[in-house]
Amino acid sequence: MSPVKVTKICCIGAGYVGGPTCSVIALKCPHIRVTIVDLNQARIDAWNSDDFNLPIYEPGLEDVVRQARGRNLFFSTDVDKAIEEADLIFVSVNTPTKKSGVGAGFAADLNYVELATRRIATIARSNKIVVEKSTVPCRTAESMRTILEANSKPNCRFDILSNPEFLAEGTAMTDLFKPDRVLIGSLQTPEGISACQSLAQVYANWVPKECILTVGLWSSELSKLAANAMLAQRISSINALSAICEATGANIDEVSNAVGYDTRIGPKFLKASVGFGGSCFQKDILNLVYLSESLHLPEVAAYWRQVVDMNEYQKRRFSQRVVDTLFKTITGKRIAVLGFAFKADTGDTRESAAITLIKDFLSERAFVNVYDPKVVHEQIWMDLQEASPLVPLDNIKKQVTISPSAFEAAQGADAIVIATEWKEFRDIDWERLYKGMNKPAFVFDGRLLVDAEKLTKIGFKVTTIGRPSPLLT
Ligand SMILES: NC(=O)c1ccc[n+]([C@@H]2O[C@H](COP(=O)([O-])OP(=O)(O)OC[C@H]3O[C@@H](n4cnc5c(N)ncnc54)[C@H](O)[C@@H]3O)[C@@H](O)[C@H]2O)c1
Ligand SMILES: O=c1ccn([C@@H]2O[C@H](COP(=O)(O)OP(=O)(O)O[C@H]3O[C@H](CO)[C@@H](O)[C@H](O)[C@H]3O)[C@@H](O)[C@H]2O)c(=O)[nH]1
């Protein structure tokens, strides 16, 4: 069976994955017409905005959209038209953790995937290759196939592929231009293999052939959960060691460096922090935990569960250290939180450690000044409200101020907490910040970002994750 040559692509879901991924496909494949669709009108309007005020901040993304939009890249809310015209459809919708019902708090909510799949089944009148781009539990492709086949028109066949996305926010464009690998899973039937080749040909326009891995459907689905679980596991491992460092006088940076020199371990993803955030790690591990439990593998479930538990512990431990260091009470004190995004170079706040820290500070009745260079104010209010649903937003606003700069956040504060590793926090004029603060002025570095010695010389009392408290040194 010779593979179909893809000429029209539809991507359902114009979010952090669908938007950048399919913009890059459009850029690299000028012969393919790419339409990215979403039900969210405001999001599509932003993608189409004249001043390129895109709905997500990602370094390098605007440049790609400027080159391809209107040429062979289109953004639309007309989902049905895009489905009808396409020969290949990416399903790139959100798969958040279920909030209620069976598996609540663990299982992935597959409602959006199912609705998109049903829409494809209803609208399609010609053969389609349907590609799972969203992160889903193992064997979701089977449910998608059942829905599609039960609703298909005569002479209309569907081939389902799994093609998980491995981009990280903040580096999405380089990850897409030069991926470590592109993974495509298919049924090992002649039709499945042929569909797999069709998608591989799209990527082959810019990805070296040896980096395009083709595997079975279920391996592909599971590999995505496995990759995230193993990345997060490294962070929880180093964070667990950071607690030992704080208690013994060892330095976590030195430990990471020493451990990472072993070529079998490698140096990446060993940076101790106030805890990992982002929309994927926790969600995907909990998904793996749920899958393991459903498969009657409680020991496997408990093993992965511990990665998330350690992350919660790390955040709690950090808040507690702030309180303990500030003479065991922060009531009425002002804390400047620098950074609200879950990592640098993104405006995304999903599962950001900053949310948990601020919630903890508020429950101790402290005042908080928060500054982030990219996160929009409405998002901060929404996140803080969601974190403390029983507290009226007006009360939260009495305790929290959103500051326009790090300098203003530090004015009149007793302590600065670095929650996100934005480069500008390393390079700010710390002497100027020091002058505007109450004394003694404390800095809590949750990201191993600043030069503790330099700040100590200025007069700050510096507490760094994975290093003993100043009193112990
Ligand atoms: N964010 C990341 O860095 C990342 C990386 C790799 C994989 N993933 C996975 O990719 C998937 C998407 O993640 P995201 O961060 O882009 O989510 P997102 O919430 O930013 O975007 C999803 C979009 O899908 C739209 N949508 C939902 N149902 C729809 C429907 N039936 N028709 C049309 N549009 C619909 C939503 O309106 C939303 O704009 C998730 O499964 C996630 O786990 C995310
Ligand atoms: O050594 C490290 C590395 C990361 N982090 C934190 O871990 C979180 C996640 O970071 P990162 O993985 O860089 O960003 P994500 O955008 O969440 O990307 C992850 O999740 C995506 C969604 O599934 C995957 O596609 C990516 O491959 C995977 O890296 C952030 O809070 C980071 O600050 C650390 O604390 N220490």
TrEMBL record:
InterPro entries: 6-PGluconate_DH-like_C_sf, NAD(P)-bd_dom_sf, UDP-Glc/GDP-Man, UDP-Glc/GDP-Man_DH_C, UDP-Glc/GDP-Man_DH_C_sf, UDP-Glc/GDP-Man_DH_dimer, UDP-Glc/GDP-Man_DH_N, UDPglc_DH_euk
UniProt keyword Ribosomal protein, yes or no: no
GO molecular function terms attached to this record: NAD binding; UDP-glucose 6-dehydrogenase activity
Residues annotated for NAD(+) binding in this entry: 13-18, 38, 43, 93-97, 134-135, 169, 280-283, 350
Single GO biological process annotation from the record: glycosaminoglycan biosynthetic process
Listed GO CC annotations: nucleus
Presence of the UniProt keyword Oxidoreductase in the record: yes
Catalytic reaction annotation: UDP-alpha-D-glucose + 2 NAD(+) + H2O = UDP-alpha-D-glucuronate + 2 NADH + 3 H(+)
Family as reported in the entry's similarity comment: Belongs to the UDP-glucose/GDP-mannose dehydrogenase family.
Protein name (database record): UDP-glucose 6-dehydrogenase
